[in-house]
Amino acid sequence: MKKHPFAFYLLPFTLLIIVSCSPKLHKVDTAKVYSRQTDSVVNIIEQQQPAMLTDSNGAAIPSDFIGTVNFNLRKPNYVIIHFTAQDSVAQTIKTFTIVRTQVSAHYVISKDGKVYHMLNDYLRAWHAGFSKWGSISDMNSCSIGIELDNNGNEPFQPAQISSLLALLAHLKKAYNIPASNFIGHQDIAPVRKPDPGPYFPWKILAQHGYGYWSDDVLELAPDNFDPTTALRLIGYDTANLNAAIVAFKRHFIQTDETPQLSQLDLNVLYNVMQKY
Ligand SMILES: [Zn+2]
Questions:
Q1: How far is the CA of 21 from the centre of ligand 1 (A)?
Q2: Pair 154, 186: CB distance under 8 Å
Q3: Which of 185, 192, 213, 255 is the most exposed place for a label (fewest CB within 10 A)?
Q4: How many CA atoms lie less than 13 Å away from 195 in the CB half-sphere?
Q5: Distance (Å, rounded) from C-alpha 251 to C-alpha 95?
Q6: What pTM, to 2 d.p., does this model score?
Q7: Alpha helices in the chain (DSSP H)
């Protein structure tokens, strides 16, 4: 019997390594899992069962399911902007296509402006985490998450912002999202999250109708102006007031991130508050 060269024995292992590293195969696998997940969502929304309710004595409350014929899908009403804090789009796509990370977003935008759509807009991505805005405590259920490829310590690329603006125009029109509801991860999770950070061009976004920015000419905040109430009125969770102030400053001041409010900061806050 002819002796096989050593390389022959290595072949299956080599193939295994090539297969497990291939992005194409990973994409096919991801598509399969995505389909299974959407099937399970369809199964849930097709159920026609009444809620099983009991009264204070534990007795069943009579109930029935009679399907109405008038309905459609719920729409997202917020857009939450993030930076990935990762080194490449490939790394982020990998993060969002392996189960153990338990994180995702609807869109990822690369530095050169390519837009990766990763989840149907009507489905709930896992991008906001524990967060609060006004009285909304489940931001994932009402928002679209957009991740920008950016390590957190660098300016955003013009091509990336240009694609973002195009995407926001589409989302705003498709779901009738008000200008006030384009906000950042830092705004809804001030204690935990710093993104999209002080480099993010909120002023440019506001000029296009996504989110707000202070006016060029500012009125002096009145003597009895209460910044905590103003922050809450905008939507910030002020349970940790310092964190809320820092988040506000990362968004609307962008030149310093201390938890103190200067007279100028107060004037900006007073001005921005009136837009909400
Ligand atoms: Zn984020």
A1: 27
A2: no
A3: 255
A4: 22
A5: 26
A6: 0.89
A7: 6-21, 23-46, 89-96, 139-142, 158-175, 185-188, 202-207, 227-234, 241-252, 263-273
Q: 59, 56, 85: which is closest to 154 by C-alpha? A: 85
Ligand 1 centroid, distance to 84 Cα (angstroms): 7
pLDDT reported for residue 29:
85
Q: Hey, which residues are catalytic here?
A: 147
- Ligand 1 midpoint to CA 130 (Å): 11
Torsion of CA 84, 86, 90, 93, to 10 degrees: -40
Distances, alpha carbon 127 to alpha carbons 9, 154, 166, in Å: 45, 21, 21
Distance CA 181, CA 204 (A): 15
pLDDT in tens, 176-227: 999 999 999 999 999 999 999 999 999 999 999 999 999 999 999 999 999 9
Q: Report d(CA 14, CA 217) in Å as an integer.
A: 66
Residues with CB under 5 A from ligand 1 (ion): 82, 185, 195
Q: At 82, is the secondary structure helix, strand, or coil?
A: strand
Ligand 1 centroid to Cα of residue 231, in Å, is 20
What is 68-79 written as a DSSP string?
Answer: -S--------EE
20 CA → ligand 1 middle, Å: 29
